[in-house]
Amino acid sequence: MFLRRSVVLAEMFYSEDKTDMASRTGENMVLQMRLCLLLATPLWSQGGYDPLRSGFENPPASAHPRVWWHWMNGNITKEGIKLDLDWMHRVGIAGFQNFDAALATPHVVGHRLANMTPE
Questions:
Q1: Global pTM value
Q2: Is 38 exposed, middle or buried (0-12, 13-18, 19+ CB in 10 A)?
Q3: Which of 44, 69, 71, 91 is deepest in the core (most CB within 10 A)?
Q4: Coil, strand, or helix at residue 95?
Q5: Taking 90 as the threshold, does the pLDDT of residue 85 lie above it?
Q6: Distance between CA 6 and CA 9 in Å, rounded?
Q7: Nearby residues of 9 by Cβ (< 8 Å), 6 or more positions away
Q8: Rounded distance, CA 99 to CA 72, Å?
Q9: How far apart are CA 9 and CA 38, in angstroms?
Q10: With 70 as the cut, is the pLDDT of residue 32 above it?
Q11: Could you give the percent of the chain with pLDDT greater than 70?
Q12: Are 92 and 65 in contact (CB under 8 A)?
């Protein structure tokens, strides 16, 4: 179908009709525009490359989500940290902002980890 349309348009465009030069130029421009649109149609209709769609389906690392990760007065364990980090990685979280919010939080773990220490 596509090839047949191209051949018909090419025959119309390159016909040897000796009509008025001014009207022929206008007709040629119209035919050229139609030819361009018809040649580009398969790209649109067959789902050619769409950068917006591609960027949405596979966003760059700079667009991945980041979260705030609150440690409440050291009520965290090494095992809990590892589980949280594994989960964040698994669901696609690219980073976090971590801080310890002490604000009179009760003690709920056996040994509190002090924020920003090698513990």
A1: 0.48
A2: middle
A3: 71
A4: strand
A5: yes
A6: 5
A7: 31, 34, 35, 38
A8: 8
A9: 9
A10: yes
A11: 71
A12: yes
Burial of 53 (0-12, 13-18, 19+ CB in 10 A): exposed
> What's the residue count for the chain?
119
- Residue 59 token pair: 């966003």
- Report the alpha-carbon distance of residue 102 to residue 22 in Å, rounded: 84
Query: For residue 74, how many other CB atoms are within 10 A of its CB?
Result: 19
The single residue listed with the structure tokens 């067959």 is 46
Q: Tell me the two tokens of residue 88.
A: 């964040």
- Structure-model confidence comparison of residues 50 and 16, the more confident one: 50
For the segment 30-35, the average pLDDT, to the nearest whole number, is 79
pLDDT category at 28 given cuts 50, 70, 90 is confident
Between CA 65 and CA 93 the distance in angstroms is 5
Q: What is the mean pLDDT of residues 37-47?
A: 61
Evaluate whether 93 touches 69 at the Cβ level (below 8 Å): no
Domain ranges of the chain: 2-48, 56-119
